[in-house]
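User: Hello! My lab partner asked me to get a predicted holo structure for this protein. The small molecule is zinc ion, SMILES included with the sequence. Please write out the structure tokens.
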Amino acid sequence: MHCPFCRHADSRVIDSRTSDDGLSIRRRRQCPQCGGRFSTIETASLNVIKRSGVTEPFSREKVMSGVRKACQGRPVTEGDLALLAQEVEEAVRQTGTSQIDTNEIGLAILEPLRTLDEIAYLRFASVYQAFDTLDDFEAAIGQLRADHAAAAAAATDEV
Ligand SMILES: [Zn+2]
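Assistant: Hello! Below are the structure tokens for the protein in complex with zinc ion.
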């Protein structure tokens, strides 16, 4: 990689560190010609295949903007959205794939969004899973209620 200061064609790695989430490596480099130091971040490439067939790099920002609409008026902060986007990226990367389609991203969003805010989850699921009728909402709400009951029962068991 070229030195950003003098354009020298080579650089030396003086330190490598894996990020806390294990998804990237940060390298400190030094130019042997001018002595300038700079960092590079290395991540496995992850591409999204859009419905149109166009491929683009995975973007946490795009995940956040998709979910942000569903969270309007809900007590969800930008920090919550950033964390959710991070969880989605980790979940997708853990599958070991380098290419996913937008549908799979939608699926990966559903679970953490449900934990974050159930109303936003219902809104997002209704668009993403194309709920057609009230029955679809009823089924999704029924599932949430059943899970609440199961969680409550489990909590009672523990006492
Ligand atoms: Zn240089």
